[in-house]
Amino acid sequence: MLRRCYGYLNQRWQEGCQDGAILFVELQAQGYRGSARTLRRYLTSLRQGQPTCQPSSVVPPRTVAGLLLRHPDQLSPSEGDLLERLCQRCPDLALARQLVQAFAELVCERQGGGILQRWLDEVTKCGIQPLVWFAAGLRKDLAAVTAGVTLPWSSGVVEGHNTRIKLIKRMMYGRGRFDLLKKRVLLAG
Description:
Shape: flat
Helix content: 55-70%
Number of strands: 0
Mean pLDDT: 84
Number of helices: 11
Distance between the termini: 43 Å
Number of domains: 3
Largest sheet: none
Low-confidence stretches: none
C-alpha cells in the first residue's frame, strides 16, 4: 500500500518535511489506508541513509489477468488503454488476449466441437505455456468439454447440491450417521 505513495513521500522528503505524523495525515488525505508504523519504518530507513524507493510502474500479474478475462465492453477506457499498451509491448500477451477472447466466445455462444478442436490446435501451436497446459487439461476430458460447449444443459445445479451436502457433512464431522445427515439436508433445504 505504501508502494503507491513513494513518489509523494520522496518529494516531501526532498522538500524538508521529515515529520512522520504530518506525512501520515497527508497520506491519509490522499487515500492511504496503511498503518503509521509502516510509514515510520520507511522514514527510518531514509534517515539512516538508505536509498529512496521508487514508485513502481510494474502492472501486477493479477491486474493483467483480470483485464484479459473481462469482456472488452466491461473495461473502462483507462483499463482498455492500459491493456492496449501492454499488448503492444508484449506480442505474447496480445496473442494470449486473442486466444482467451476466442475461448470465451466459444463457451458463451456454444459454438461446438469443431471450433473447440481448432482452438485447441491453435493454442497448442502458440507456445504460451500456461495456455498449452490449459488445453492439455481440456483434452483429458474432451467429450465432456465438447458437450459443455455444444449442449444447452448444465450439471451446475447438481454440482451445487453436492457441494452443499458435503459442507453440511463436514460441519457435523464425527457427530452422526446417515439419518442425522438426511435430517440436516432436509431442514437446510
